[in-house]
Amino acid sequence: MSVNLFDSKGMSLEKQRMTWKDMVQPPISKLDDEAFTRVRIILTNGLEVEALRFQHLCARMNKDLQVPLAKIRRVEQQQQTTINWLISSDHSPLETTIAYEQVAVEVTAAVAQNEPDPYLAQVYRFGLLEDFDHLYRYSALLDRLEGKDANNILQSHTDIIPGRPTVDEHRAPENDLRNPYDRTKADTISKLHATTIMAAEYQTHDYYANIGPTYADPVARQLYAEIASIEEQHVTQYESIIDPDETWLEKWLIHEATEVYNYYSCVEQETNPRIKAIWERFLDYELGHYAYVSELVKQYERRDPSEIISQTLPDPMPFKSNREFVRQTLKQEVDLRTSGTQFVSKDKEDQASLAYRQHINSDGSPSQTVAEGYQWTPGTELNRKVA
Fold first, then answer.
1. Helical pair 35-61 and 93-114, crossing angle rounded to 10 deg
2. Listed residue (243, 205, 199) closest to 49, CA to CA
3. What kind and span of H or E run contains 56?
4. Residue 316 confidence (pLDDT) above 50
5. How far apart are CA 16 and CA 36, in angstroms?
6. Quick check: 384 pLDDT over 70?
């Protein structure tokens, strides 16, 4: 199945209505549902949160668009509620954290392999190895704080081994910026990728920033603070690859196309029939949003929307294990660093980052402390025989 954005009008905005029962549905099962069902839930929740964030910012800067934005934003908020409430209450905040990092690893790996622009693909691989290490650090914390095996969440799709060490990820702000794509030349999929990964990373930062202070354990509190800082760096990286010369309406149309693309990908691959029905409903909604914003582009900018987004959606994003790709990337690129917008070898890293890193780690590194002596094996440390 392929989706033509200009033939598939979706459900009209006026018909998109939900009740509290629609929004608050039975959650998934932590252990019985496939891990990629949870990956899709977390990813699409991030996209909806990003939609709300962007549309509020757009409304502050564009008086004429405030009513259209308010109408679509109300539906986006109800979609976000529906999706976020699918995470079951038997997930501890730390188990949900493990799931967030699985999303970061597997979705970024999928994007990196399907990105046609070599520089942008490198950007994604660079961030991938850092999120991969975060998964390892949080897995150590889960074992030691709650006595749980992270693989119960990961379901053997994602390795639990070190990536680029978190202690080495701290950089001077100017070394987190990247070169943007050219809005007049970039492939549609490059625009969709950038918005997708930016949304996912922004959601992750906000989750860690809110959950971290709720812990009593001092190492846990520090670890969340440290990794939240890196996630902010990632948001800086990914938003910088988006062409800043795009107009507000152009960016809005890309956001809506990104949601259509991701729901389309979810529909094509979801294994839980009840959850698939939600993806189908929201794909219909987002097609309606895309059609609505397309008319605004024509009205206010006198532009053909196909100048911004191609008519037919690219092939769906694959939701699958990327273990071999991640391992190969880790082997080849773990020692990459940055200098300005460029990726360089470890010995050529910008001095500003070295100075920043030395200071912020001068009292110790939570990510090093939590994983001291930790090596994942099935089960938990409490179950292992002492030699």
1. 80
2. 199
3. helix 35-61
4. yes
5. 27
6. no
Q: How many whole angstroms from its chain centre is CA 373?
A: 30
3-state secondary structure of 342: strand
Q: Are 374 and 366 in contact (CB under 8 A)?
A: no
- Residue 111, Cβ density class (10 Å: 0-12 exposed, 13-18 middle, ≥19 buried): buried
Q: Determine the average pLDDT of the residues in 95-113.
A: 98
What are the DSSP calls for 293-330, one per residue? Answer: HHHHHHHHH---GGGTS-SBPPSPPP-S--HHHHHHHH
Average pLDDT over residues 310-317: 92
- Our CA dihedral for 325, 330, 332, 336, rounded to 10 degrees, sits at 130
Place of tokens 């908020």: 77
Retrieve residue 342's tokens: 């460029």
Rounded CA separation 174/79 (Å):
36
Cβ-contact 341, 177 below 8 angstroms: yes
Q: What is the pLDDT of residues 16-75, one digit of tens each?
A: 999 999 999 999 999 999 999 999 999 999 999 999 999 999 999 999 999 999 999 999
What residues are paired with 342 via a beta bridge?
A: 339
Q: How far apart are CA 344 and CA 205, in angstroms?
A: 26
CB 314 within 8 A of CB 320: no
Burial (CB count <10 Å: 0-12, 13-18, 19+), residue 385 = exposed
Q: Please give the pLDDT value at position 387.
A: 45
Closest Cα partner for 285 from 24, 3, 2, 17? 17
pLDDT, tens digit, for every residue of 196-254? 999 999 999 999 999 999 999 999 999 999 999 999 999 999 999 999 999 999 999 99
Q: Tell me, what DSSP letter sits at residue 156? A: T
pLDDT tens readout for residues 131-142: 999 999 999 999
334, containing H or E segment:
none
E runs forming strands in the chain: 337-339, 342-344
